[in-house]
Structures are given as structure tokens and as C-alpha cells.
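Weekly modeling sync, notes
Attendees: AB, CL, MP (scribe)

Item 1: holo prediction request
CL wants a bound-state model with pyridoxal-5'-phosphate before deciding which constructs to order. AB pointed out that an apo prediction alone won't tell us much about the pocket. Agreed to run with the ligand included and paste results into these notes for async review.

Input as submitted:
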Amino acid sequence: MARYAYVNGRYVDHRDAHVHIEDRGYQLADGVYEVVGVRDGKLIDEVAHIDRLDRSLRELRIAWPLARRTLGFVTRELMRRNRLRDGLVYMQVTRGVARRDHAFPTTPVKPALVLTTKNTRHLGADPGPGVAVKSHPDIRWDRCDIKTVALLPNVLAKQAARESGAYEAWLVDDEGCVTEGASTNAWIVTPKDELVTRQSDNGILAGITRGTLKSIANALQLKFVERPFTLDEAKKAKEAFITSATSFVTPVVKIDGETVGDGKPGPTARRLREEYVRFAAAGEAVT
Ligand code: PLP
């Protein structure tokens, strides 16, 4: 079956999809993106993702490449063409194509839009055995709240984690606090049963999954606190886990080789994953 990408107004064979060499995303990482999870043919938390895309675009003063409603239509058409059931939709908007110059183009340039899809396995309520994470210095800039394609520090951290046999990197700031993962948000459950994740400010990306989990935690009347936590506190936590559009809620059972809790996914992470899957199953399927 042919796999399609959407590139600046056209559905093209994924193998032939390309952008111009002077696209500012390619040359200067001058662009933003979104990743929306798909489960059983349903987009998960679509409105929140598109709201965040809108915010990222506004922060960088990049115009919308098409109307918001049209993006919804194009996304569904690409999913239909690619028969996407489980996986993700990747959306990228860059400032567009212009002669290379750090400053914004002085003549109007049309922002460039690319959409692709990826199939992944079906994620269910069972979180599996959990994953290991490896700490890594957080060397990113001061606007981690914007979802830009400038991901080199995240790439290097993730690669270091993978080379050490871990699944994810946990980024640690100058105070020894875990900010977030290379592509996930980081959570712990303390010995006092407090569910903790770092407050969302410029130091982290306000994950959409994180936001939904906050509502779920409130509905379940869990003791939920947004505050910084150190790597040391995480290693001594009862439970730890990561969240993202594509990993849902995934328990962390090892941090830098040290076992978290009893080394198995804990009850809080299991419960939150179950509830998140229930939430993901609600939504409207794309036919
Ligand atoms: N933090 C970073 C740095 C990310 O790149 C991501 C997702 O890509 C997340 C957190 C999780 O965000 P979301 O739940 O919206 O996928």
C-alpha cells in the first residue's frame, strides 16, 4: 500500500515527499511541530494539540499555513489514505522558504506545512514491564515551553540514554532537579503518596498527556503537586513514570541503573494508564 505525506497542499507518495533546501526549518530550525496520538483510528486530545500548535506559532510569529478547520480535514484525509489505526500524526510548520538570513524574511513568505503518519503497535491498558531512564544534563534554551523543531539537545540526550541501554533520558537542571524527559514529561509518586510532576513554566514543554493526566488525577482525588523534584528524590520514590502522546503513561523502573520501588510498574502508574486508555478510547474514529 502506498504511504502518503501531505506537503504544502498536496498528498504525495511518502518516498517522493520533499521540501526546498532553503526551507527555514531545514536551515535554521525555524519551525514548530505537533505529534498527535492515534488509537483505534481516533485522534487523542486533538483540540489541545492544535491549541498548543497555535500557541507555538504565535510565540514565534509564524502565520497559520491554512485554516484551523482545514488542518482537521487534511489530517483526517491523510489518516484515511494511510489507513492509520494506531500510531501518530506528525505536523510541522516552518516559517517557509527564503534566502538564508537569520532575521525573518522581509517580504511575505508562505509558511510550509508537512504532515506524516506513523503506525505503531496498539497501546492498551497493560503498561508492560516498565522502562529504564538515564539522567543527562539539561543543556536546552530558556523557551522549552515552545514545541520547536530545534531538538538537538534532546537528540543527544536520547542517544546517550539509548547507548547506555535506557529507553529515555531524564534531563537534570543546575539545581539537580529533573525537568522532563527528552521527549516525555517526568512524574514520581513519593513515599507519602504524593503524585509529583514539575510545574509547567519555560523550563519544560507542557505536555498534552500531562494536562489530561492532571484532570484524571484530580478526578481520582489523588494528592497531586506540581513542583521541582531532584534526581535523588526520584530514585527514592515509590514509583516513577513518563507521559507523552505516543507512550501514554509508561512506568519507569530504573533510574541510572538504580531500581525504583520494587522494580515493577506501581499501582498509581497502572491506574493512570488504565484511565488514560479509557479517555483515548472516547473520541470519534476516522472512517
Ligand atoms: N516533553 C518534551 C520535551 C516532548 O518533546 C514531549 C513530546 O514530544 C513531551 C514532553 C510530552 O508531550 P505530549 O504529552 O504533548 O506528547
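Recorded for review: The helical segments are 24-28, 46-59, 68-81, 152-163, 208-219, 231-235, 267-281.
Action items: CL to compare against the apo run; MP to circulate these notes.
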